[in-house]
Amino acid sequence: MNGKMRALVKHHAGFGAELREVAIPEPGPDEVLIKVRATTICGTDVHIYSWDDWAAKRVNPPLVFGHEFSGEVIQVGERVKHLAVGDHVSAETHIVCGQCPQCRRGEAHVCANTEIIGVDRRGCFAEYTVMPAANLWKNQQDLPPEVASSMEPMGNAVHTALSGPVNGRSVAVIGCGPIGIMAVAVARASGASRVIALDINPYRLSLAKKMGADVVIHSLEQDPLQETAKWTNGQGVDVVLEMSGNPTAIQQGFSMLTYGGRMSMLGLPTRPVELNVSDEIVFKGIQIHGIVGRRMYETWQQTAGFLESGRIDLEPMITHRFPLEDYEAAFQQMISGNSGKVVLYP
What we know:
It is an enzyme of class 1 (oxidoreductase). Residues 16-344 form the Enoyl reductase (ER) domain. Its cofactor is Zn(2+). It contains 12 helices and 18 strands. By secondary structure, the protein is an alpha/beta fold. The protein has 2 domains: 4-150 and 314-345, Medium-chain alcohol dehydrogenases, catalytic domain (Quinone Oxidoreductase, Chain A, domain 1), CATH 3.90.180.10; 156-290, Rossmann fold, CATH 3.40.50. Strands 3, 5, 6, 9, 10, 17 and 18 form a 7-stranded mixed sheet that branches. The chain has a 6-stranded parallel sheet with strand order 13-12-11-14-15-16, with helices on both faces. The model has no long low-confidence stretch (mean pLDDT 97).
């Protein structure tokens, strides 16, 4: 398919982006060309748009960025057999090598050679995008495109929450960005006895409540340790899902965790975090799970199952919708913190 398309380009090493006309990419023999129906903004995209230290070290402009999307297959490569024109798809955005020891033992989510679309290679803030067919997840035709686009970050929430048992356990979710809010819903749908959400943003705490939190704690106005102790009969929470990356919140998370509990960590601190390893880890006998990406493709099966069964409804947390040309307003909404998931429609 020849021609031009509109795409949002990280055009320079600085703040912002530009909407440009670029060539429609051509799929290779193992790839698929997709008409993008919806794309959602992630915190990673905000880092790139704002051009912080992480982005400056990782991203090489000019680059079409964005990595969460859903769309319709409009062209398939000659070796693609399991997808057809007209299929509705979402994408596993981590492209792996398939040859490293991690990939070969079935742990491709920690592939040593991972490339992420919209970060290391061309992304999806565009009218069309190309993906390896192996990375696409076929959706039901009636799944709303903005929900299908949100399956990728929801997979982070599913992976974090279900890296250990949840049913019958108290769960604290620290950090109520969109992935944290989805983790609240996952914990609730998976049978947690009590779900406690902690953040410093009242707007996002209200979304966490809508998505199933039993208790919400404003960590600057209430003492997180006293409050979690109160709601767990003084025992501490069984599971902490750390989604914030905030050093103080991480320290509090270890302190509120019960003896023998589980800490699953997805949030990324911007500086080293000091911990009392003896008292908070060793003598408590806790488990710590570092979470990256989604298990391929167990996590996708779980995520699709939650959505298709109706056990999780993402609509309450999809709060803002913009056409692609209004990208500046969309990013400002994300940066303000007063949003759930923000959608761009090419």
